[in-house]
Design goal:
56% helix, Band_7, Band 7 domain-containing protein, rod-shaped, alpha+beta
Length: 291
């Protein structure tokens, strides 16, 4: 009776690795592709493992140093080490529970030492601590931790409201400071503009009075040369009276009233002339002091 060889073949998918046993003991790893084993020699394909990257989301609730309850959402990316796939196959029955337990342990050992603000500022440090611990532990079981992300940090709802109120109050305070500075600048600029306007108005009035004085002087000189025997005082009186009546005329034309009462008589006219002349002389003297 001749020997009969019975060989089985099977195909291992890409990104997977097979575990072959012989008489119930681990024998070798089967690479992706076509593989052969001999059942008569006690060989069999016990199982396969995926070497793709797996992702595990872990939510941890713990308390900070300043007694704030906070939830941290951590995302762990891991994969089976190809050359150590037998350890991953035999050592751990549920790798996700093992990873989750170590994440809980590391996070709850670090976060209670930190304030809430420090957790937000140093979340990468927490993720790094978790990564170092998982790499040390899970590497012995045939798993490699590719990356860890601290996805979210969620404080208690009342704490979030308080943080938002503090932030809003700080921003309102800053806005009030800026608004006060803006009002101050506007008031200063307004005061400077009013001062400049008053200064320019004073310069204009002074120049106007100077022009009036120069014109009167020129009229007096021309009239004195053309009318023999007329003194400068008489000419000045005549000009003052003429301007006075011109002013009365303009007042009557521009006013809503139709009747204007003025004193009448030679004595009153002389008094008016003296008052106008004295006023113009004082104005001219004031203009020279201003300049």
């Amino acid at each position: 009776m001749g020997n009969v060889n019975c060989v089985f073949c099977g195909c291992i998918e890409q990104a997977s690795i097979g575990v072959v046993e012989k008489w119930g003991r681990f024998d070798r790893l089967a690479e992706p592709g076509l593989n052969f084993w001999n059942p008569l020699a006690g060989e069999c394909l016990t199982g396969t493992l995926s070497t793709r990257i797996n992702s595990l989301d872990v939510k941890i609730e713990t308390k900070t140093k300043d007694n704030v309850f906070v939830q941290l959402l951590c995302s762990i990316q891991y994969r089976v080490i190809r050359q150590n796939a037998d350890d991953a196959f035999y050592e751990l029955q549920n790798p996700t529970e093992q990873i989750q337990a170590y994440v809980f342990d590391v996070v709850r050992a670090h976060v209670p030492k930190m304030n809430l603000d420090e957790i937000f500022e140093q979340k990468d440090e927490v993720a790094k601590a978790v990564l170092e611990e998982l790499e040390k532990v899970m590497g012995a079981y045939g798993y490699n931790i590719e990356h860890i992300l601290m996805v979210d940090i969620i404080p208690d709802a009342s704490v979030r409201r308080a943080m938002n109120e503090i932030n809003a109050a700080q921003r309102m305070q800053l806005a009030s400071v800026y608004k006060g500075e803006a009002d101050k600048i506007r008031q200063v600029k307004k005061a400077e503009a009013e001062a400049e306007a008053k200064y320019l108005g004073g310069v204009g009035v002074a120049r106007q009075r100077q022009a009036i004085t120069d014109g009167l002087r020129e009229n007096i000189l021309n009239f004195s040369h053309k009318v023999e025997g007329a003194s400068a005082k008489e000419v000045m009186d005549l000009l003052m009276i003429t301007q006075y009546f011109d002013t009365i005329k303009d007042l009557g034309n521009s006013s809503k009233n139709t009747t204007v009462f003025i004193p009448h008589g030679p004595g009153h006219v002389r008094d008016i002339g003296d008052q106008i002349r004295n006023g113009l002389m004082e104005a001219a003297a004031g203009a020279q002091v201003t300049e």
